[in-house]
Amino acid sequence: MSDWLPKQIDAYKLGRKKAALAGAIDLDSLHELKTMVSMPGSGPGAGTYETRINAKISFDYARGAALIQGQVIADLVVLCQRCLQPMPLRLDSALCFAVQTVSTTATCLVRGTQEFELLEDSGEELDLYGLIEEELILSLPLVARHALSVCPARDYIAQAHEPVTEPGADETTVKPFSGLKDRLRKSKTKPH
């Protein structure tokens, strides 16, 4: 896929034509997402990863709504929260929207077994990049981490979780509230 997707689309026109789009999006066009991911050239391991965002989208028209279905695959670079090193992350997000001009209180449209999230048509062209960017942001992990088996910090983590015992350490357990139990018993047996 080397063609670029259009930033703005007429969802109704594409839906009536039952059109399909396939192409790429430059990460620089997705400002919010760009601020959330670690970019090549900005830290340790810089330039070792390539970011790519590709999408395949099909359009349809039913019940007065333009239906948008597709898949977005993004190969990004995020910062691992264990080792603070860049790590590759693949996001695979499904698009399933219905653009409708009529205002309704419903939040989804069901067609067969497929459920479409409703978008209200503002009368302008739809911002396809904004729609894709929101879906990718929602697909980001809450805490991005390498798998422990490949994380550069795995040796440090393993060492930090080993029990530390010093030779000759006193094994006496201190129970600071042990005397409290006796005092409570005495106070219950005293007449008021």
Task: Give a short synopsis of this structure.
With 192 residues, the protein is of the alpha+beta class. It has five helices and eight strands; from the N terminus they run βαβαββββββααα. The strands form two sheets. The protein has a six-stranded mixed beta sheet with strand order 2-3-4-5-7-6.
Total DSSP E strands:
8
Average pLDDT number = 82
Percent helix range = 10-25%
Structural class computed from helices and strand pairing: alpha+beta
- State the shape: elongated
Largest sheet: 6 strands, mixed
Number of helices: 5
Number of domains: 1
Order of strands across the widest beta sheet?
2-3-4-5-7-6
Low-pLDDT stretches are: none
Chart the SSEs and their pairings:
Blueprint: E1 8-9, H1 11-16, E2 20-24, H2 31-36, E3 52-62, E4 65-79, E5 86-100, E6 108-111, E7 114-120, E8 126-127, H3 128-139, H4 154-160, H5 178-189
Your description of this structure?
With 192 residues, the chain is α+β, with helices and mostly antiparallel strands. The chain has one domain. It has five helices and eight strands. The strands form two sheets. A six-stranded mixed β-sheet has the order 2-3-4-5-7-6. A two-stranded antiparallel sheet has the order 1-8. Strand 3 and strand 4 (65-79) form a beta hairpin.
Descriptors:
single chain; 192 residues; alpha+beta; six-stranded mixed sheet; two-stranded antiparallel ribbon; 5 helices
